[in-house]
Specification:
The protein has helices at 3-17, 22-47, 68-73, 75-86, 104-112, 122-133, 143-156, 159-179, 184-187, 199-216, 218-223, 228-236, 241-245, 252-277, 287-293, 304-335, 337-351, 363-366, 370-382, 424-428, 451-460, 493-508; strands at residues 89-94, 97-102, 119-120, 195-198, 389-393, 397-399, 412-414, 419-422, 464-466, 471-473, 511-515, 522-523, 530-531, 535-540. With 544 residues, the protein is of the alpha+beta class. The structure holds protoporphyrin IX containing FE.
Length: 544
């Protein structure tokens, strides 16, 4: 029996028996029949013989919406299920757009190592980022200009600066613990009582405080406690899948986002003017001062609005990524007292003083802490904050045959206009690559010959290439790519490692942590994967 006979006809018969004014009845019939008709058409369209050169399309009932609910609810489960059914290359409909997914290390390479003339990031990301970051930077400018802007930032993030940042981050964490109400038990100096804190709130606040103190500069840090906090929050609320997928809706959150961007941009530009007008009072050595001195290749200096927008972009790019990584790291540590103890012992071994205390740490010393390094790497393996990396295909592109399972010699053509998507998260959790892939086990990073070390070498060693912002590894074939690869590779990697490591060092030397309740599930509903709302218990260490 057809869908029409089982669903549509009984409905229309029932409705036609009701007494409606004729216009309303027609309207109601149309409202019910048009969607049903489009579902039927969509089903029939999927049953038609398909162009075999195109990747298989994931089955979906509702046109336009497509597989959005399954992908949005749990992209990992969705990708795994599709991989089982269709292999490493498949397409799905996401709110009217066709997205072609290429999984596995080769799939990552296809997307991340693609030529810019064929695969463009700006076409996909700009509707989300331009209203937040602002005009003429990142994805609102030609790719060559972005490469130059990345170079400007990279040269501002020197080892010298990192050395100075360690003390600043440590101070911020200390001040936070001494003032935030969630750490009242810590403030009471009682070593027997346990307190608890809200994980997402705490690490989001610590991240913005430490990033502003270091990267953003004195003026921004000082204004964080005042109206800037609300402006930041309004801007941040524009960083959601809805604002990305449906730009320009006439909703309050869109208006607040735009107003917040305008305010923030003019705030940064007023700082720039002040610094230029009073060079004697402003001897800051931060990213802003470095950007003020740099020039594009054609000799032009960076206009003030671009400096402002680059700084906003850095703030946003580093906020959710670092805060979610910190949150996951601390949750795993709270769940594994043995690793907490190993981290604490590592600190005693390196920084212990004769009177039983711990001295300050330096940037160069942090780099030598093997347990800490493994803890951060392992967290980024299981919880890279970005689960989907996307580009838009500007031409028809053949997908290398090795990706096409089950038949190895098959070549698919990704049609021009498709969005292509890689998910390094899937390779980072692949049980055929990683032993006990779903278990957080920092020890896997100690084995120099193990899979983790090999993946890391494939990520960072070998031939290098310069896309305009310094040398990065040429190869993008690795099952471990938490910071992406190729021309869009992250420039905040070293800073993020430093920030996350220093915060963890500061916390572990002061307190013990335990998990409250079940280990939280990932929340995929926001732009970055973060844990569902949860709490961690803490207690002051005996020898602080
Ligand atoms: C790019 C991850 C922290 C700035 C990326 C990409 C990834 C990533 C996966 C590639 C995106 C793509 O190819 O589409 C991370 C993670 C972080 C982190 C896991 C922390 C744990 C930061 C920080 C900053 C930053 C702290 C700024 C200081 C950037 C920038 C790009 C980028 C500017 C380049 C975008 C492009 O070229 O298209 N990051 N990031 N990130 N990240 Fe990060």
């Amino acid at each position: 029996m057809s869908v029409n006979a089982t669903i549509i006809e009984p409905w229309t018969a029932t409705l036609s028996q009701l007494e409606w004014p004729s216009n309303s009845r027609l309207l109601l019939l149309a409202l019910i029949n048009i969607p049903l008709f489009s579902i039927v058409l969509n089903v029939l369209w999927q049953l038609l013989p398909r162009d075999k050169s195109q990747p298989p399309l994931v089955w979906h009932w509702i046109p336009v919406l497509g597989s959005a609910p399954a992908y949005g609810r749990d992209p990992v489960a969705f990708f795994r299920e599709c991989r089982e059914k269709y292999g490493n290359v498949f397409s799905f409909i996401l709110l009217g757009r066709r997205v072609t997914v290429t999984l596995g290390p080769q799939g990552n390479d296809f997307v991340l190592g693609g030529k810019h003339t064929q695969l463009a990031a700006e076409d996909v990301y700009s509707p989300l980022t331009t209203p937040i970051f602002g005009k003429d930077v990142v994805y609102d400018c030609p790719n060559e200009k972005l490469m130059e802007q990345k170079r400007f930032v990279k040269v501002s993030l020197t080892i010298e600066k990192f050395r100075a940042y360690v003390g600043m981050i440590e101070d911020e964490v200390k001040d936070y613990l001494n003032s935030d109400p969630a750490f009242r038990v810590w403030q009471m100096n009682d070593i027997n009582e346990w307190g608890s804190f809200n994980v997402l709130k705490t690490f989001s606040e610590i991240t913005i405080l430490t990033a502003s103190r270091t990267l953003q500069g004195r003026e921004i840090r000082e204004s964080l406690t005042k109206d800037y906090a609300q402006v930041y929050s309004d801007l941040d609320h524009g960083f959601t899948p809805l604002h990305w997928m449906v730009p320009g809706l006439p909703l309050p959150s869109y208006r607040r986002r735009d107003a917040a961007h305008a305010k923030m941009s003019s705030f940064y530009q007023s700082i720039l003017r002040n610094r230029r007008e009073h060079p004697e009072q402003n001897q800051e050595d931060d990213v802003m001062s470095s950007l003020m001195k740099q020039r594009y290749r054609d000799g032009t200096s960076i206009p003030d609005h671009e400096i402002a927008h680059i700084l906003i972009a850095l703030l946003m790019a580093g906020q959710h990524t670092s805060s979610s990584s910190l949150a996951w790291t601390m949750l795993h540590l709270a769940d594994r007292p043995d690793i907490q103890e190993a981290l604490y012992k590592e600190q005693i071994q390196h920084f212990g003083t004769p009177d039983g205390g711990l001295r300050d740490v330096t940037y160069d010393e942090i780099r030598e802490l093997k347990v800490l390094d493994a803890v951060v790497r392992e967290t980024l393996r299981m919880h890279p904050p970005i689960h989907s990396i996307m580009r838009k295909a500007h031409t028809d592109i053949p997908v290398p045959a090795t990706l096409g399972t089950p038949s190895e010699d098959k070549v698919f053509v990704v049609p021009k206009g498709d969005i292509v998507l890689a998910s390094p998260l899937i390779s980072q959790l692949d049980p055929t690559v990683w032993e006990n892939s779903e278990t957080w086990e920092p020890a896997r990073w100690y084995d120099e010959k193990g899979v983790a070390a090999q993946a890391n070498r494939a990520y960072d060693e070998g031939q290098k290439v310069d896309f305009g912002f310094g040398l990065v590894s040429k190869g993008t074939i690795s099952p471990y790519l938490p910071f992406g690869a190729g021309r869009h590779r992250c420039i905040g990697e070293q800073f993020a490692y430093l920030q996350i490591s220093t915060v963890i060092l500061a916390l572990i030397r002061r307190m013990e942590f335990r998990l409250e309740g079940e280990f939280p599930q990932p929340d995929y509903s926001s732009m970055m994967v973060q844990p569902m709302p949860c709490k961690i218990h803490y207690r002051r260490r005996k020898f602080d």
